[in-house]
Amino acid sequence: MLAPWQAMAELPVAPCCHRGANRFAPENTLEAARICFDFGMEFVELDVTESADGVAVVIHDQTVDRTTNGSGAVADLTWAELSALDAGSWFSPHFTGARLPRLEDMLALAKSYGRQLYIELKFIAPELVLKLVTEAGMLERCIFWSPNLARLLALAALSPGVRIMKRRRDAESLEALFETAPPAVVEFDPRYDDVGEMAGCQALGAKAMALYFGADPATFQQLLRTRPDLMNIDRMDIFKKAYAAIRADLVA
Questions:
Q1: Count of alpha carbons within 13 Å of 72, Cβ hemisphere only?
Q2: What is the chain's Cα-based Rg?
Q3: Is-contact 126 154, C-beta < 8 A?
Q4: In terms of DSSP H, where are the helices of 64-193?
Q5: Positive or negative torsion for Cα 42, 45, 50, 53
Q6: Taking a C-beta distance cutoff of 8 angstroms, is the pair 130, 143 a contact?
Q7: pLDDT tens digits along 46-81
Q8: Which run of H or E residues covers position 245?
Q9: Which residues are catalytic?
Q10: Do the Cβ atoms of 196 and 177 come closer than 8 Å?
Q11: Is the pTM of this model over 0.90?
């Protein structure tokens, strides 16, 4: 694997790997997360859904069909059934035998590295997520989002220590995002949002996160020059090269 990435003081940014190192290992697995942390990435983004017997399962889809050798809805399967599935061979024979992790497994891995998680609540009770994160002693090292606004706001209401993310495009103005349950992080997607507002977001007390799941080095460099606090990415290898190019310009 490539040598680990390191941030420089002149350009601090915390990269977040979308579903782990999903170009190098099966998404949302411990294997994919471990590659990210070994590579020096600060955050791993993951998705979590509740099983039939109340286990917080790390998986993106509502069903297991795409990313395992099984079939059926996660919510209809027990953890005993889910944990027996192969979650790696669909990606590569090299990962045959990889398993679906529980949220607590991902929390323990991130804690062992001293890193952080970005947790997306899919179909799961906010109370269960907060319980597991708190028990792991990881509340200060996690940020949260859900495509279901009611679920996200319910999670935020459970504890003042919960750090939520909101998308810039979900409000008419930047200030409107802060009117109810102020976010700790605001996501800017250059396809929809004015990344020039990042400084305003930071002035309001939130961190600015740039989202880019593409693979164009020039776009990476352009976004890095806006100085986001975080970047949510798929291609950590191209991010590293783009970051090195920016670094060379700064020290030249």
A1: 12
A2: 18
A3: yes
A4: 79-83, 103-113, 126-135, 149-158
A5: negative
A6: no
A7: 999 999 999 999 999 999 999 999 999 999 999 999
A8: helix 236-251
A9: 18, 60
A10: no
A11: yes
